[in-house]
Amino acid sequence: MPTEGKANFIVGNAFYRLETKITRDLGILAAILYKSDTGTLRVIDGMTGCGVRALRYWLECDADWIWANDGNLDIEPILSQNLQDLIGAGRGKITYQEANRVFFECHSRKEYYDLVDVDCFGAPNPFLNSALWATKVGGLIYFTSTDGRTATGHLPQVSLRVYAAYARSHPSAHEQALRLMIGNVQYHAATLGLGIEPIFSLFTGSTYRVMVRLLSSSNLSEKNYGFLAYCHGCGEYQTPSWRKLGRVSCPCQHSKKPPILSGPLWLGNLHQPQFLGRMISLAEELGWLDRLDLLKTMQAEALLPPYFYPLSEIGKRGNMNLPKRSQLISALQSQGYQATIPHFNPQGIKTDASLAVCIEVGRSL
To answer: In this structure, are residues 145 and 151 in contact, taking their beta carbons and an 8 Å threshold?
Structure first.
């Protein structure tokens, strides 16, 4: 019988991926802190699969109530067995219906939840709006996407339909995917007079996960919701304002074409640094030492610009052999720039320095 965290369960014909345990671990850390702050934790696990998330929210976060739902009635025997103790304790229920029906049922009854976990397969667009209707103001929503090709610019016409945004391909496209998700949720929240704040954003290599907090008023602005421009000629990025979209250009002499634009998308902070700091402390307390490096990397990148540079891009553009990543980061920091490793790509640098500066500093080493 598989074990994850404090949960023992069977898989059978239900969905379970050991590789995404990291996303469940981070969700558990955030949920524990949320309950510590508010005193309550009511959870919707909208696509529960084998039920491991529901079990862990109950056993490790002491959730007061869990609505475990899955659209596949064929897994009823598996789910009933895995969650029998949860149900027997009077701490939850199981349903088998399309997740959007769950969310709208909550809204119609005015029953709003503290944490809505939407671990979907493929593009998340059917749920980026509807999950808001089931979430308490101040509560958390945890979204998934596994449709990397759309959000990384390989299918821009599809991204227009999925995110109401045009996605182009460039070196930091995996970060772009997370920002498209956040931006689309922010837009839908704004239409309801609400806002969102990213708690953390995670790319695992095949899965994109974003946790946001729902705010009582809209925080959508030109500063945090807009476009990312990339010049294929020189490799530099810009975040042009809405009012200058028709005049976007690059001063470089390497390309006769204007920069490509992706967006609109979220341009603000990817993570909430203080909350991540508390997650780090909690992970240490629980002995989850294998999560500390990731969380510290995410905390370090939280306030930096909405893009990063792969080391290979710096070397290719500078026509040089690169120094060690750690040396380049230290050299940039010594010159007053912020620089760190992006969690999206361990062979990259996330910095407020331009690519030209990275190349110049790299050559000096």
So the answer is: yes
Q: Three-state DSSP class for 241?
A: coil
Closest residue by Cα to residue 363 from 332, 323, 311: 323
Q: Can you name the residues that pair with 197 across neighbouring β-strands?
A: 213
DSSP tag of 51: S
DSSP state of 259: P
Domains of the chain: 3-226+265-301 (3.40.50.150)
**In terms of pTM, does the model score above 0.85?**
yes
In 3D space, the residue among 230, 121, 213, 132 whose CA is nearest the CA of residue 175 turns out to be 230
DSSP string, 134-168: GEEEEEEEEEEE--HHHHTTS-HHHHHHHHSSB--
CA 311 to chain CA centroid, nearest Å? 23
Give the closest residue to 225 by CA, choosing from 180, 277, 258. 180
Contact 365, 323 (CB under 8 A): yes
Q: What is the largest CA-CA distance in the chain?
A: 69
Per the CB < 8 A criterion, the answer to whether 169 and 153 are in contact is yes
Q: What is the pLDDT of residues 230-256, one digit of tens each?
A: 999 999 999 999 999 989 999 887 777
C-alpha to C-alpha distance for 37 and 60, rounded to whole angstroms: 16
Per-residue pLDDT tens digits for 345-363 = 999 999 999 999 999 999 9
